């Protein structure tokens, strides 16, 4: 079995070309999983789907719990996937992709770079960006303790939540910043400029 997690596929520039769904007819051992949490804005619903060869879905049906999801959750998921909602969902996805570009540009400002905020890393095909934090005055030297302080101060002083992800592979001294509205991005950048000058 090969499982491809496509939780963030809708934030790719060309999701139709990037998705493994087109491979399902070729590989009967492939399972593609997708979520309504990210691109549909339904994180609280906790619903996703597995798309696979009928033999695999038959096996999955036999081993799942008898009450998979509530009827209310199922109704909301079906509404979210209804064809008439597609334009609204595509608009939401487009806004997030556009705002992600704005966020990446804003994070690349010289003041932040001089303050030790690195340029966004990773593929940028999600509803968040990953940013390394460097030691103050030592560009290129990642600083886990400083990253933790910045995360804490953003929360304490500005009520802005960014996530420290420094314990994940290849993410030493990194923070994860969720893409927000343009106004939220502006507020974040102003707060980040203040906080990096203090840490």
Question: Which structural traits does this protein have?
Answer:
199 residues, elongated, single chain, alpha+beta, three-stranded antiparallel β-sheet
Summarize the topology.
Elements: E1 2-5, H1 15-18, E2 30-35, E3 48-52, H2 54-63, H3 71-81, H4 86-107, H5 110-114, E4 128-132, E5 134-135, E6 138-142, H6 144-158, E7 163-164, E8 174-178, H7 182-198
Parallel strand pairs: 1-2
Antiparallel strand pairs: 2-3, 4-8, 5-6, 7-8
Helix pairs in contact: 4-7, 6-7
Polypeptide structure, described:
With 199 residues, this protein is of the alpha+beta class. The chain has seven helices and eight strands. The strands form three sheets. The protein has a three-stranded mixed sheet. Strands 4-8-7 form a three-stranded antiparallel sheet. α4 runs parallel beside α7 and α6 packs across α7. The mean pLDDT is 90.
DSSP strand content: 15-25%
Rg of Cα set: 20 Å
Q: Biggest sheet, strands in spatial order?
A: 1-2-3
- Kindly state the percentage of residues in helix: 40-55%
Arithmetic mean pLDDT: 90
Distance between the termini: 47 Å
Short description:
With 199 residues, the chain is α+β, with helices and mostly antiparallel strands. It has helices at 15-18, 54-63, 71-81, 86-107, 110-114, 144-158, 182-198, and strands at 2-5, 30-35, 48-52, 128-132, 134-135, 138-142, 163-164, 174-178.
